[in-house]
Write a structure and sequence with these properties.
There is one protein chain. By secondary structure, the chain is of the alpha/beta class. It has helices at residues 5-12, 22-32, 81-88, 99-104, 121-124, 128-131, 149-158, 182-198, 227-230; strands at residues 40-47, 59-63, 74-77, 93-95, 113-116, 160-164, 170-177, 209-216, 222-224. The strands form 3 sheets. It has a 4-stranded antiparallel beta sheet. It has a 3-stranded parallel beta sheet with strand order 4-3-5, covered by helices on one side. A two-stranded antiparallel ribbon has the order 2-6. Helix 2 (22-32) crosses helix 8. The longest helix is centred in the C-terminal third of the chain and has 17 residues, at 182-198. The two termini are 33 Å apart.
Amino acid sequence: MKKGKRYAEAIKLVDKTKLYDLEEAAELIKKTASAKFDETVEAHLKLGVDGRHADQQVRGAVVLPHGTGKEVKVLVFAKGDKVDEALAAGADYAGGEELVPKIQNEGWLDFDVVIATPDMMGVVGRLGRVLGPKGLMPNPKAGTVTPDVVKAIADVKAGKIEYRLDKANIIHVPVGKASFTTEQIVDNYKALMEAVVKAKPSSAKGQYLKSVTIASTMGPGIKLNPNRFTGQGGQAE
């Protein structure tokens, strides 16, 4: 894809050889986000782990203090009273077995997060091939498999995001919008980094945070100083 004039102008503002402090990077991101829509601000974290090993997986969830700036559609798999409970708590859709063919055969995916009560995981498991590759499969570690659907919905609507490694051992997650204040972007990014640093597997050796980048949807990546987030043990090699 050919990069446009806006991108060319934005990239001039970023020093590619520099590791920025978070506050400076957040200010810069607002200057480089020049699209006509409200760009998403994303975090890209390259970790010094090997996700192919179960004991080096990094996965979890964190509630961003200022949310993501995006309205999140929630689907809840539940039975009986829990369905009514979920809808009353703000779920966009809730149901059970009857939703399986709709997703499997009709390709219905008009939701961003799936929550399930533990007794529904047998049903939800049948959708693994559809939901798994899209990162929508409920997971106890992310708090999306739980009997307490009310709390799970409240957390998601308040700005809870799930983070997990991709095949290249990188975490990609939204941390806000370009319209957020610098302080809001900083607070959200710090909350994410705190959670990821806490989630460091005990079996991970060497430098944990290999590279830490912030970028807007259409803007260039701005590299941050990873040592600022670890305090120790994250020194650059």
